[in-house]
Specification:
With 587 residues, the protein is α+β, with helices and mostly antiparallel strands. It has 3 domains: 317 residues, 3-Layer(aba) Sandwich (Rossmann fold), CATH 3.40.50.200; 80 residues, 2-Layer Sandwich (Alpha-Beta Plaits), CATH 3.30.70.330; 122 residues, Jelly Rolls (Sandwich). Helix content is 16%, strand content 27%. The protein has a 7-stranded parallel β-sheet, with helices on both faces. Strands 20, 22, 25, 26 and 28 form a 5-stranded antiparallel β-sheet that branches.
Length: 587
Amino acid sequence: MGNGFSKLGRGVLVLSLVTGLSTGALADKHKPPQRIPGELIIKLKTAPDAGSRMQAAVISSLEKVAGQGGVLKFDQFMTDKRLHVVKLKNAAAVNAAIKALKSEPSVAYAEPNYKVHVLDATPNDTDFGKLWGIKNTGQDSPPTSSFPAQPGLAGADVNVLPLWNKGFTGSKNVLVAVIDTGVDWDHPDLKNNIWTNPGEAGDKATDGKDNDGNGFIDDVHGYNFAAHNANSRDDHDHGSHCSGTIGGQGNNGMGVAGVNWNVSILPVKFLDANGGGSLAGAVEAINYATKMNVNIMSNSWGGGGFEQSLLDAIKAARDKGILFVAAAGNDSSDNDASPSYPASYDVDNIVAVAAMDNRDSIARFSNWGKTKVHVAAPGVNVYSTTKGGTYKTFSGTSMATPHVAGVAALLKSINPTWDYAKIKARLITTSTPVRGLKRMVVAKGRINADNAYTGFVPPTNEPDERLWKDAAKTIESAHPYKENANDKYEVSAPGSKYVRVHFSAVETEAGYDKITIETPDGQVVDTISGTVSDYTSEYVEGDKLIVHFTSDSSVQKNGWTIDKAQVITQTPAAPGGRRRPDDLAQK
């Protein structure tokens, strides 16, 4: 599967989408507590008998401010006879009643009766249930022709709801540049989070002058480096889609909710209606965003090889303290071996992002890199905003990138003093471990917003290497293997705690023909492609794993051989107990 990267002739670089398919100190303030109209809670110093003088005296005091007959109920708590909930006919009299009761000898205290609610910040956006990358409950992902719906793995998301529950939903003080195909300024879920240039707004918006002196005329909502004008509106869908994941307005009763319900999105367009652009446009776009003092750049595009001008632009952003989030690419290849730019530039403000599906497996199209790709995030069948006020489902490392840019923006809104290095380090070190990513990304897992905020580094809980035992078992492909293969082999060790396999040799077409090690329910824990030898796979917890080999129709190489399996068994049973599972079975 290609990603649209191409190079046409000497010196002519075409950049394209990486879809593969189709600040305040805190966030916004907590809402003030809401009273139940007309109600207050009164605690008497001693528990009264029914119809007692104490109770009658309190009701009399209340009627002095609420009016005769103004006390609609005076109900005693079942759990504490001194406590009473009182309902006044005149809701406006509650404050006066509380004040009057302060001088009542039998009253310990009186206070309003407030509404309380569960601390679940799930927003009321109508399509929130489709956003498995934000909250994965195990629901099916929205289907596309390339990726049918599949049941999710609960919890395989960016874990942002705990931050929302704490009241952290973003800040307009954080400025995120979406460097892409533009953004739909008027989309109902985006319009309130589109940045407006105060130096060009209002009557100055279309006067044809560079009113703010930044070198760009009428750049009210960013700039268009494809057409060299101020119309940064999206004419493709891609930039709007990325923007919705970063900052679709949350809890507005419609559509989706981004990682940030509130944020400032700066549209910087350099890709045209076909999703293509130039190196010159990319450099201009990055330089413009740097000039505008953004906090974060979201870059779901790539192409070509190493280019000094692009590297210099990213370094200039770094020198201004800007985090540069970049899609790893959609070639199903190893960026350590074959760099993908701009994600693979060696600049410390870059966070390169791989894509995962809703079952915590790396996407089949996603690039990876044990040292060059930093984190992974949801990127398969992602539902978000598109131009014309619409919504669509896309897949690609393009879709994973704004999840990371969004989490970075949320962290910046909570901690404005955090620089790009601190945010990048938190994203990497606090990721949730995913064994299928152990050898694929620096973080060895999926980003976790709450962990990044709290600084919690999850334990890996790896099995003790000293406990592995060999069990002879040979499995191999045809030599050479067949085209369009889709072969599955089951390796089982009944009763074992863990099982893995050892490859004496692998020779496949890198990036296209691959072996995956999977759990029985299909979760990928390891992917092997290209030429390797003496390779031990990742383990599967339990007593069974699946070796799944797929190839395309273009190139058939020598293939692969598994020369042994390895297991960690259960603690040996006492005499007369269960037999130790020393025998492996292949089906």
